[in-house]
Amino acid sequence: MTSKTGPGLPHGSLPADKAIVEYLESCERPPSVKEVARAFKIPQELRAPLRRRLKALADRGAIARQPGKRVASAEAMPEVTVVTITKIDRDGSLLAVPSDADISPPPSIRIHADRRRGRAPAVGQQVLVRLTRISGIRYDGKVIRVLEREQKRLFGTAVAGRGGLVLLPATRGSRDTIQLQTGQSQTGGNVSAAEGDLVEAELLPRRGYIGKTARVIANLGPATSPGAFSALALAEFEIRHVFDYSVIAETDGMTVPAARGRIDLRKTPFVTIDGADARDFDDAVWAEP
If you average pLDDT over every residue of the chain, what do you get? Predict the structure, then answer.
């Protein structure tokens, strides 16, 4: 349903500005002028004055014009807009923010992926969606089209290249040459990188035929460090590695379960036969007379 019914009006009058704004704020989707007139039972001879009233409200910033000769509350998102997928919640719903970074505060957008339309968008991808307003700045979105399939977040090793550092992607089979820029972490601090560091980078939009560029958002340390293999696995198999604070908070107070019903061999002097560079010690022997 696009719009709700406004209050009835005395014959020959237009609704007050406040009533128009309150009505628009109650609409799930931006209504057309005709739908506004129908909601307030405005007769045909007052349609032109209504259009002038709505134009005046839009000029003052009290309401917003929308595509298709529609109007909405000043804070409302366009019904059809481009969003960027930021995360996937525990229910499998996609959470997104407007791709326009100037919108503040950013609205909360939940997109329910339709598997029948093919593979769901991944985190970092831009999607054209049709929004339905739930309340305030909360929206549900329906995917119209995935605008890009290019991965936004990349793992790789910083290596010396022409004009500075370039990213050697960890993804199997990737042959792209991606110029690296230093950037800011998610907490606002500066992130730098040196040759040989394993980094997480965010792919930046390209302009024309200029080569690919990525901004470093996390330095995972030297590629030879113990955490390097885990980071490479995250990149190659697209394993989720960023979680909400609420999810992490659920682990507070967790303890190692008791060995009840199992044989405790933790004090047994095993000798491992894994390689010197192994990070997962799962081959070991023990002998006794």
Answer: 77
The residue from 218, 237, 256 where one domain ends is: 237
Are β-strands 108-111 and 178-181 bridged in parallel, bridged antiparallel, or unpaired? unpaired
At 126, is the secondary structure helix, strand, or coil?
strand
Average pLDDT over residues 56-71: 80
Q: What is the pTM of this model?
A: 0.41
* Alpha-carbon span 285 to 274, nearest angstrom: 11
Pairing of strands 190-191, 70-73: unpaired
* C-alpha torsion sign, points 62, 67, 69, 72: negative
Distance CA 237, CA 289 (A): 45
d(CA 244, CA 260): 33
Tokens (6 digits) for 168: 């050697």
Q: Cβ–Cβ contacts within 10 Å for residue 123, how many?
A: 18
Return the CATH number at 223: 2.40.50
CATH number reported for the structural domain that contains residue 65 in this entry: 1.10.10.10
pLDDT digits (tens, 9 = 90+) for 42-55: 988 898 999 899 88
Return the higher-pLDDT residue of 44 and 4: 44
Report the pLDDT value the prediction gives residue 96, as an integer from 0 to 100.
87
Q: Which residues of 204-276 form beta strands (DSSP E)?
A: 213-222, 271-272
